[in-house]
Fold:
Amino acid sequence: MPGIDEITGLVKSSARDAGFDLAGVAPVHDFPELAYFPEWIGAGHAGEMHYLEARNEAGEIKRASLQNTAPWARSVVVCAINYNTDQPYSTGVSDPERGWISRYAWSREDYHEAVIRRLRIVEQCLFESVGVGRQDAARTAGEPALSEAEGPALPNPREATLGATEAVFTRCYVDTGPLVERVYAKYAGVGWIGKNTCILNQKMGSWLFLGVILTSLELTADLPAPDRCGTCTRCLDACPTAAFVAPYELDSNKCISYLTIEKRGAIPEEMRDGMGRHVFGCDICQDVCPWNRKAPATEAPEFQARDGLVNPALGWLAEMRAEEFREKFRDSPIRRTKLSGVRRNAVIAMGNSGRGEFVAALEKLRVDEDPVVAEAAGWALGKLRRV
Structure:
């Protein structure tokens, strides 16, 4: 078997060949940022995202330590791919009759699928570098599949048998695993955790999808990325809902991305004004970041914007029916908020628009069969009539 340094180099090289822009290796340690995670959960900052609170049989929060879920893991391979497109930032456009969908959700393919496909290529290279093909390594290693709340179930860990007493295990995740990916991205040298809690890279900016491979091999670790935010607070100052409790600390309950994607039912009225015209996610804290001024555009075809998703018409979204929703957002992360959420968010954006042209549509929506949409329409009408 090649030496560990050589295997590490082959894995990184395969990541580049697979289309990733960045790749690094982090050791498996209980980093200080992970120790903070239970406190963040305890403060209620996860909102209704209860899957983040998942615990093992011993009652330990899974994401607080890989020892709680994958005690066999010794290294984490972190791969990142740029999804930025040559389109305006949300802070550069302001048509009140149109909404804003977060940049990452414009893609022609769900990023989970696009990233995991590339990640499997890297995983296969890891197995081949230790002399075992991936097709020979697919057998259960005893770890239970993810619960539905944590995301779509993935195959059980890959196991490559090297000898009578030696084996290599791996498992791939793209936003579906019981770990805090950005912490490992920092210690893999991929980027630092910015004050807006996003991973930042000094050359690529923050428009990055992350994929990780847990492995029982103790690969050569990279140095952690230094924090280059300095004294800048533009992301914190720009947040219209004051979601940042402090630098590096986000209260999801106030975050527009959480409110428009994860929050079910009615959105608290005190948060609606700050949502502006956002209908799925929010890019403001990334749009204003100086490190994104010259962020390169991706060449990956699957991350190019679908027709109609950059500045979509609010009336179209608010009155969308189930069949059109399924067709338009097939293989899209926008499915996560469901039709009810998209329509609710569009109606709130109508109320924030200040445009009387929406009154007629909102009158009809006020008696919509979806009570969440109907309630939001009543609020939006009241706001427009006060303008």
In short: Residues 4-87+107-215 form one domain. The chain has a mean pLDDT of 91.
